[in-house]
Amino acid sequence: MRNDWDDEQLLAELREAMRARRAVPSWFVGTGKSAYAWHNIDAELAQLTYDSQTDADRVAVVRSENASIRALTFTSAHLSIELEVAGDSLLGQVIPLQAGTLEARTKAAVTTSPVDEAGFFALEPIPASPFQLRFRATDGAYVMTGWITL
Amino acid sequence: MGLKASRPGLAGHGDPAAAALPARAAAGDQGAWDEIVERYAPMVWSICTRFPLSDRDLEDVAQNVWLQLVEQLGKPPEPAALAGWLAAATRRECRRVVTAARGPEPPGTQPDAVPVDAVPVDAVPVDAVPVDAVPVDAVPVDAGPVDAGPVADDAVLGEEIIMAERHAALRAALAELPAPCQPLIGMLVSDPPHSDAAISTALGIPAESIGPRLARCLEWMRESSALLGLAEAGANRPGGDPGA
Q: For the structural domain made of A44-145, what CATH number should be given?
């Protein structure tokens, strides 16, 4: 198949293509480019697999008494991180249960919290959004979540 | 047309340089990654603008979408399916953020989560809101079901993907052109476009030579690997109206 745009069509398409590019704020492009800093970091990305707000319909049927508590679950190939908002704290548990260290990262700061043998940890106060969690297990496993906004 | 448009041969780029970008980025080439972002950020942005998102939400979406792609680099989808993958990931993240922002939070905790002036008031019929899903007083009148509205169904996403590939190929073709062509075409497609007199002055060429020079540049452009690749991929229908 050959390209059969005439000159006018080609110019019109080009104009549209350049307009679409100009419409994008430079910070939006910059955010995408800086994501590459995570390339080859020795950490598995844990995906958000449950959010009590997003999945509210499902929860309401099963356990309506808990529907007002914000709960999130992040899952990677090897472990899950469960989070629950409790007042000013963010309580969490690593499953399967294991000890390690948890970092909460905002753009400005990193806060480190211990994770006990039962996988429990607490972050207080809840980091300014957006933030990211990274869990380093004592056996060396390393998992990070995507950016979280609460 | 639906998401099948993201399969190779429909919206895939036949441009070998573009197709090589994911593998180069996976091998550690930040420049290749930057090109991927430059190429597809307009599509990610365009899909996001279909949702009522604040700047902070948009940054949240962008971070998560690109982070997920970084994570995928070692095990990429077919290069030709990259746009489709990104489009689907963007829609998923936008829906997640929109849903979270309108959730049953105490009033006032996230005053800027959904700026009122960013919400298309009549985008979704009010009666489409599932009234039993959330407390009635927590439902903004204009927050329709993000899963069912016209904001980004599969057909819309398919169009976004095809348009993104077409626009990316056009921008790449422009960048491939010999040096004298680039300012000439750049001035002609700027917004607003420049007059022949202004172009003549700025580029130091006679006004009457603009037409012939432009014709030659556009002919080169049609022969560029970016546009030939696009033509092979079958996504070169201008403006969705092939009969024009």
A: 2.60.40
